[in-house]
Every structure is written in C-alpha cells, then in structure tokens.
Amino acid sequence: MAPIPRTNADSDGNCWRGIPEIRRDFQSWLRSGLRLAVPLVIGTLVGSCSTLDSINHTLFGGGPTPGQQGYVKGFLGEVVADEPRAALVGKEVLSGGGNAADAAAAVGLALAVTLPSRAGLGGGGACIAYAPDSHTPAHGYPEAITFVSPPVRSVGGGDRPAAVPMLPRGLFFLHLRYGKLPFEFLLGKVDALARQGVPVSTALARDLSLVAGPLFADPAARAIFGFHDAPLAEGQTLIQPQLAATLAQLGVSGVGDMYQGVLARRIQQASPSAGVPIGLADLWSALPSLSSPVIVPLDDDQVAFPPTDGGVGAAAALVALKSRPADPQAAFQRSLAAAARWGAGGANLEQVLHGELAAPAAAPLYPASTTFATLDSDGNAVVCALTMNNLFGTGRMVPGLGFLAAASPATVAPPLLAPGLAWSESRHAFHAEAGGSGQAGAALAAAVALSNSVRSGYPMTNLVPDPGRANVIACSRYLPGSDSSCAAATDPREAGLATGGN
C-alpha cells in the first residue's frame, strides 16, 4: 500500500518548513529502512499538521487532501512525455500538491512500466533541474543530474553484456535534492500501474513490432510482452506483477536495497541465468552525478545542457544555429562531431563548442531514448532523457525481478541524451525546456526546439528536423511571471501527450 503523503499546514505543502534538521533526520531514517520507528516519528513530528488538516477536512467540506488529485486549485503546471499514461501520472502528482521534481520522478518511474522499450529500472538517463528560488540547493541556477548506466565490469560471462541499473538511484537523487512528496508515495502510484496493468500505448506497440522476434527468445520477456506468442497490440493490457513487487520492495526498504541490500543480492544471483550477469561491486559503486551544466547564451537567456555526449552535442548545435540559423544541416554535423569528440575524452569544452572539429565520416545511428519535461506553478522545472541503450535493452528479463537489463555501452553505442533548459538570470525565471530524441538527430532536436521556443515564446512552432523528435514546455512571459503564457507540446509525429494547465 502506498504510504500517506506528508500533511501540510502552510502554502507550499511542507509543514516542516523552518525545521530542516528534523526533516533531514526523518528522510535519513526512511532511507535506512528503520520502519518500526516511523509511525511514532510521524506522530511526533507532524501531529499538529495532521490535526489542522483533519479540522479543515471536517469543518469545510472534506475536499482532496495533500497527495490526492484535485488538491491544487488553479494552474498546475505542465507535463509532456512520449507515453500518455506516464504523462498523466505526472499531472496527477502536480494536482496533488507535488512540485516539478516530484512529477519528474513519478513520470520517469512510470515510463519504466508503460514504455519499458526505452526506459526501465535497468537503464539510466540525464536530467536538468531548475528552481528559481535563490534559497534552493543551487541558488536559482540549473543543475545537471546524470545517471548514465556504465558497463558491468566486476563479473564476466553471459551472452548479453549488461549495463548497471541506474534509474532508481538517479530519480531518487533528483527527488531527494528537489522533491517535496515522499518518494515511496510516488513509487506506490507506479507499482499500482504495473500490478493492475496498463493499456499498451501506440509507442510501445510500435517498438514491440520492431523487435518482437529477438525479444521473444527470452521466455520471461515473451510471457510479459506477448499473447499467444504474438506481441501485445495497442490497447491490450500489459500486466507486470514481478516488476510491481520490485517497485513495492523499493518503497518498503528504500532505493538503497537495490544496490546494497536484499534486492542487490537477488540481482547478483538471478542475472547470470538470463545471460546478463550483474555483480554486487557494480551495484555498490553505481552513483548518480551532480554537476554544473554546459551553458550557452541565447538572446537574453542562458541555456543549460548536461555534460553528456548528447548534451555537449546539443550545446554545439545551438552555437552553430546562432551564427547560421538557416543551416540546420551544418548544426547537425557540428552536433555529431562535438558529441564524438567529447565522448572520446580529454577534450576542452571551449574547443568542442567553438573550435575546429573534424566532421564525422558518416552520421551514425544511435539507439533509442525517450524524453519528458515537467513544470510546476512556481517555475520549478525538470527535463530528462532516459534510455535502455537499445530497444528493450538486452532483451533479457532479470529473473524474478520483472525488469529488463539494459545493454552495455561497451558493446553498443549509447544514445545521445540531450535535455536542455532556458532560464533568465536577471528575472530568476524559467523560459523553456526541451528533450531531444530520435537517434542521431537527438542533439539537434533539442537545440532547434529550444532556439525556436526562446525566440517565439511558444513550444513546437516548427517541427524539429528528422530523425529528431522533441518534447517542449515554454512560458512566453516567463515563470514566475505569467502562468497563462505557459504551454507544452509533444512531437506530432509521435504518440505522446502534453497535459497540465488549470
């Protein structure tokens, strides 16, 4: 059962404001797994808040409580994702009083259920997070949170080299730094999707049709994604009981259990039998990274990208578009050359963005990724790109745990992870964000989408060049500022969803 969200007595939904030491201690106890003490702690710390909520609920009509859809009145914010049900989960979190980081963590986890071809517990990703308030962790400056899945190195064997699972730790770290609702509450919403089942979306059905043959060579994958030996079709129900149990275990024991607890040992013991061995040493050392983003000035704004191959490629493409806006092909070549040079290591960022680079011999194809973006009514924003390093990763389920192992980046060229966010330093406000996907076109897609949105004030004024795709949120008059100027758009060539508003 999903835990009860925090009760609140003040306007921002946090009844622990002013006592951060107690809040930090409580979060630490939750992560440590000392669950027996939690009811007493809750009663001690938030009893007054619960009392106020109870009185309000009794005397004034019993409206939605914190965490319940409909709790927030007026402008919720915006959510956009490549898979509709995951986007709706994000909107539900915003409607229940969560912020952009809460919604982002929920969308990312939901995509692991609803679009496992491109996101999953076994995979990873990269995000840009922004909070305009100078009292927030980065003092009103964007941060890059990267949780790219490295290759498994501590164990050998197996016919499908795997990557180290990074998604749970990455999203947990994002949420720990910026979120407001309890992480286990978000996990509870998502494990219900896996347990009760979700309709197969257009996006998932399309991916299944592309790789059903090799995917169904794994009996566990065939049992989940097939029906009478045929791939699930759009609208059929996808039920994942083992994945639901794993998500529920993360909610009970904490995300750390997957890296140094019982779940970690189960992964170590079960993965070799599927041909995707993952060692304890790999799990123990799998940590997300927090860093300053790559910044490119654009008109009156600054645009932030993560220091990934795709982020640097998108930054280089944006630099090229600034000088030659009518030549997207040159920006495309620049993005690929910059990504390749940065990925080779030892590169100077200034040289990669502005110096001479050798053009790639041919435009390589990169594996699939998926992107999403969230924005709340206070102007907090998150944009992420996630991947399994291949469609459905290795194509092998980790036995008994219900998730696919991602493909090792040592054996496949990982995708270009290219989320980006534009903000105004002088206004301390959000302007636009975009996630670029579409194999080799991902970096250019993010750059074009952001350039168009910053200069027009609207999302998706024009399609990004093929094969790129984009998900975009923009506020023409910034946020904080005017929430009526905000809108979201998903790429019309795909089957995602943009939702939010009032």
Task: Show the helix and strand layout.
Layout: H1 20-32, H2 38-59, E1 77-81, H3 84-95, H4 100-114, E2 124-130, E3 143-147, H5 167-178, H6 183-196, E4 198-199, H7 202-215, H8 219-225, E5 226-227, E6 230-231, E7 237-238, H9 241-253, H10 257-260, H11 262-270, H12 280-284, E8 289-291, E9 294-298, E10 301-305, H13 309-323, H14 328-343, H15 349-354, E11 370-376, E12 381-387, E13 418-424, E14 429-437, H16 442-456, E15 469-479, E16 486-490, E17 497-501
Antiparallel strand pairs: 1-11, 1-17, 2-3, 2-12, 3-8, 4-7, 5-6, 9-10, 10-13, 11-12, 13-14, 14-15, 15-16
How many H/I helical runs?
16
Side-by-side strand order of the widest sheet: 8-3-2-12-11-1-17
Give me the secondary-structure category: alpha+beta
Catalogue the unreliable spans: 1-60
How many strand units? 17
Beta percentage is 15-25%
Mean pLDDT: 88
The quaternary organization reads as single chain
What value does the Rg take, in angstroms? 22 Å
Helicity, as a percent range? 25-40%
Tell me about the largest β-sheet.
7 strands, antiparallel
The shape, in one word, is: globular
Gap between N and C termini: 29 Å
